[in-house]
Amino acid sequence: MTIIREVHKWIGLLLGLQLLLWMFSGLGMAILPHAKVAGDHHRVDSEPGLLLAEVAEQIAPPLSGSASDVRRVELRLLSDRAVFQVDTGGGAYLLDAASGSPIAIDESGARQIAARDYSGDAGISTVRHLEHPTLEIRDHAGPAWQVNFSDPERTSLYVSAETGDILERRNNYWRTFDTLWMLHIMDYSNRSNFNNPLVILSALILFWLGLSGLVLWWDSFHREDFRAIVSRLTGKKPVLLSVASPSGDLLKTVRTPGHQTLYAALEAEGYALPSSCGGGGSCGLCKIKTSPDSPATAADRRQIPEADLDRGVRLACQHRLSSDVSVTLPDGLLDARRLDGEVVSSRRLTPDMFEIRIALPAPLGFRSGSYIEVEIPPYSTDLDQINLPDPVKSLWRTSGTGERIQSARPLVRTYSLANAPGETGSEVTLNVRLVLAGPEHAGAPVGLGSAYMTSRRPGDTLSLRGPLGDFHVGEHEEERVFIGGGAGIAPLRSMIRDQLLNKGSTSRMWLWYGARTPEALAYREEFEQLATDFDNFSWQVALSHLEPHQEWEGHKGWIHEIFRNNFLATHPDPGRCSFYVCGPPPMLEAVLNLLRGAGIREEKIAFDDFGI
Amino acid sequence: MARAIAFNVRQWHKWVSLFVGIQAMLWLASGLYMVIINLNFIHGDHLVRNMSDTLPPGYTPGFGFEEVMSSYPQAELISLETWLGKPYYRVQTIDGRVLVDAQTGIQRSPLDRTDAIAVAQYHYARPGEAKSAQLLVDQANAPSEIQGRKLPLWRIDFEDPGRTSFYVSPDDGALVTRRHDYWRIFDFVWMLHIMDYKDRADVNNTLLRAFAGLGLILSIAGIWLLWFSFKHRRGVR
Prior knowledge:
The complex is a heterodimer.
Chain A: H1 2-31, H2 34-37, H3 52-55, E1 70-78, E2 81-88, E3 91-96, E4 102-103, H4 107-117, E5 124-130, E6 144-149, E7 156-160, E8 166-170, H5 172-185, H6 197-220, H7 223-233, E9 239-244, E10 250-256, H8 262-268, E11 287-289, H9 298-303, H10 306-311, E12 313-315, E13 325-328, E14 337-348, E15 353-359, E16 371-376, E17 379-382, H11 390-397, E18 404-407, E19 411-416, E20 427-433, H12 448-454, E21 461-468, E22 480-485, H13 489-502, E23 509-515, H14 524-533, E24 537-543, E25 555-556, H15 559-568, E26 578-582, H16 585-597, E27 605-608
Parallel strand pairs in A: 9-13, 22-23, 22-26, 23-24, 24-25, 26-27
Antiparallel strand pairs in A: 1-2, 2-3, 3-4, 5-6, 6-7, 7-8, 9-10, 11-12, 14-15, 14-21, 15-20, 16-19, 16-21, 17-18
Chain B: H1 2-36, H2 39-42, H3 65-71, E1 75-83, E2 86-93, E3 96-101, H4 113-123, E4 130-136, E5 153-158, E6 165-168, E7 175-179, H5 181-194, H6 206-231
Antiparallel strand pairs in B: 1-2, 2-3, 4-5, 5-6, 6-7
Helix pairs in contact in B: 1-5, 1-6
Protein name (chain B): PepSY-associated TM helix domain-containing protein
Transmembrane segments (chain B): 15-41, 207-230
Keywords (chain B): Membrane, Transmembrane, Transmembrane helix
């Protein structure tokens, strides 16, 4: 699989480069003036020559009895002298028309012919005899003279040594053009065959990519975009934008220019929605609620569950203001504030996951399940700055990142809060897993955000914004099932601790925790203790990658399968439970498919998809 | 910061792509046609025969070069070749070209319909007879597929799948060029490729330069965006 992935990556890169080369070489050939490429600017305009009768007084018969394979005998003038040119299947030769004796084009003859053709000021620098055609006269056969002129564009005139004809007029314009032509047609040896397999294959694949690009393009272009053109041309028609808080209270109604996206309009009003794809409709973070009648775009349908679409949830970056609109902001957005944090402690929970405690200026009010944004400034750090066990270090060394990792641009990353609200005073806890691809994806780079976070030391400051998010436990008391793994344990831990310790919930609660190995389990003693202390809470672990020598009493296998066999299949009425899911994408997808397949209604399922 | 820039680049990239995207597709589609269809086939090499006839070994014309010169004192060039497999002269004078029988000295040009069809049929490599012959004389209404060649020319059409047309010069009796539908499509996509919709020849036109420049910028921006969206996956939380 690794090899296929690598090959795929490189082919993609090569084709992208070839598209760039086509554009670049095409532009170059369009810019280079054709007359100069053809050498016409230094070519003497042919004036009416002498008539044959003025020169040739007597004519010898051109063909001896043995001359065969002759296609043509031409009587003409060469440098004011009457000659026969005899063309045969194997080449051509010249004869003096009067005597019938052979004429050879020698160096001085070639110089004379070239000088008569050349209208520039420069003189001849060198003359070379070519026994066989070079790349510059590749369309011709037979020996030739290369006559070089000392002009800036390094003109070379090629004179046929057989017939005295000017074969080609080459110069640096042509040489540049010819290199671009070679890149354009991808015939790197002879530069003439544009029916070669390489260019055919590239053209086929890129044409297909172009077609799929066209579909994507159409997908990203909406009717509103065309309306925006019209409103730009006819003057900006402002619209009324009403903004309501998550609980439905009207915050403000403003007049705003009518051609921008809802995202941009809200940002201008001070409501910065989260986004990590830059308005591409692919991260699904900038969700707002508006009228359910608002047409859902393809991106909306991809990112938002059906039930939410019916309630009017849309992606703000995908909708343009064309008429008056009312918007309800997402949960938590108004509470989100800029926060200056200081790292208090950083310890490893598992071989690759860290618990980072951050002190804030004041206690942070938030609902369990929320996340915060962390600004990752440009930085660089080394592998040995991060406290990692040897197996993780060697995994890093097989990645696409060297021992030194750096980032040149500011980035934004989001991490769920792992503590329950209020339980640690003004401190908050994050779980950060160092993003390292497994050995099956060797060569993938190390995560820039997680490498920054895991290399922080106590006393380091962080710029944060939060709380944000809509992954929360419902107020209604009911049986609750938490399913997760990896760093997805953070919001689940926050929710479970909040329910048990803060809210004193007596509802039945389950945690189904999936991990690869026993070492990868975080907060093992803590969950054990909670299960002992609270009769209504229990937890189950499933391990998927146990080594043969490791002993394990509990479940072995994938968490979704264990959960299906031991909970869904035996529970009298799973439809009455609510489910909270957070974990790595494949796990999340498997669990969601399982729940939906079991007929659990969407409103009973809450999940956090890491924004991927 | 980076995400604000990406947002702007994305919007801007989308708009430019509206204008250049269609042309880029036309470039890819026309390019694909030109590289897939073999150039010799486009040139119609499969449609012709008898294109390199030779003179009889040691041939001495019954009507010599000196006699041609005295018959045509305005001659600039006299070429002894074959025509319909027999030796003929093509004489280039300051008034034009003529076809002269090398045995008898009788001028054969200008060619009539029968001769023109005979030339076309002699070189036509497939079975089938010429369907029609038409003498084109009006330069202003010349078909674009002869690419500015000087009239008059005989156009001889064949009834074959490619709707082959041969062009024969009435002056020197030569098969000047051949066209068929695959050539005509090639010429059309070449027009789309170089964006010279009038003469299909000027590769330095302003429209092409502008679109090629925008296309280059667009592909650089596109690759940058791809890079951006690979790099900026949301962190695990």
